[in-house]
Predict the structure of Site-specific recombinase, phage integrase family.
Amino acid sequence: MTQQRKAEEKWMPPRVYKTKVAYVFQPKSGGKIRLCGLDVAKSLVWMLYEKECASLDNFNSVASLFEKFFLSASFIDKAPRTQKDYLGYKKDLLIAFGKMDINKVEPKHVRMFMDKKAVKSGISQANRHKSALQSIFSWAYERGKIKVNPCVGVKKFTEKARDRYVTDVEYQALLNHACPVIYAAAEISYLCMARRGDVERLRKEQLIADGIYIKQGKTGKKQIKEWSPRLKKAISHANKVNPSISSMYVIHQFNGSGYGTNGFRDRWVSTMERARKSTGYLMDFTFHDLKAKGISDFEGNLEEKRNAAGHTTIKQTADYDRKTHIVPTVKSRN
C-alpha cells in the first residue's frame, strides 16, 4: 500500500522523498538517486527530477548505444582512420536517431536519413554514414541489445568508381610548381602508393636502412617501401622544409608539428592554382589520385600491384589501376 504524503510534501514529484539532508528519487527500476540538498527551490527539485526521468527514458536510446559502442573494445580495435571517420559521422547520426529507442529504428528511418544526407552531402557520405550505423547496430545485435539490425536490407547508393588517371605531363606540372612540402608529399605518395594521412604522419624513425616503414592507417598493413634514387630525392626535398627546426616528422611545420588536413590542403590548392595558370591544364585531380597513379604505373600484374599497394583484395587494386592499356588491333602486329 502506497504511503500517503504529508501535506507539506504533496508538492514533491512522484517517487521523490525527503531525507535528513537531501531530496532523493527512487525510480521503479530500483536504486536511489540523490537530486539535491534541502536548501533549494521547489522548481529546481522538479527540474532535476525531470532530467533524471529523461535520462532513464533514454537508457535504451540510440545515443546511449553510441556511448557504449565508442567505449567498447570493438571500436578501439578499429584502425585509427576508421575511428576518426566514425567519430565524424557520429554528430549527424545522433541528430537523426539519437533520441529513438534502439528497437524502434526501422529500415524506413535509415532510408529516409540516407536520402536526406545524399541531398545535403552527396551519395558517398550517405553510404559512409550508413555503413557506420550498420556496424554499430551489428555490434548491438551480437550482444543481444537489439532484436534486428534496421540497416540490413537498406541499399546503398550506387557510386561511380573514380577513374581519373593523372598523366605524366600533369604530374610533372604539379612538381614544377610545388613548394617543398607538396613536392615531397606528392613524390612519397606516388612512389610508395601511400595515402595522404600516412604521408602526413610519416616520422623520421620510419626511415630505415631498407626503405620507408609504413603501417597503413586505414588497413593496418605493415610494409617497407624499398629505397630508390627518386624516393631518396623526395626525402631530401622534405629536409628542405624548415631545416633549422627539430621535428620527429619527415614533413613538418615551422613549429615542428606535423601537417594537419587544413594546412596541407591550403598548400595543395595553391600549388594546383599556380600550375593551372602557368600551363593551362585543368589540374582537376586530387592528392589521393596520386596513389592511383602509382599503382597504375607500377610494372607488374594485378597480383604484384596488390602486394605492392598493400591491398586486401584484387578488386581494390583493380579500382586503382586506371591507366588506359594499349592493346593490339586486328593485324596490328603483322
Notes: The CA atoms of residues 295 and 305 lie 6 Å apart. The chain has a mean pLDDT of 91. The radius of gyration is 28 Å. The longest helix spans residues 123-142.
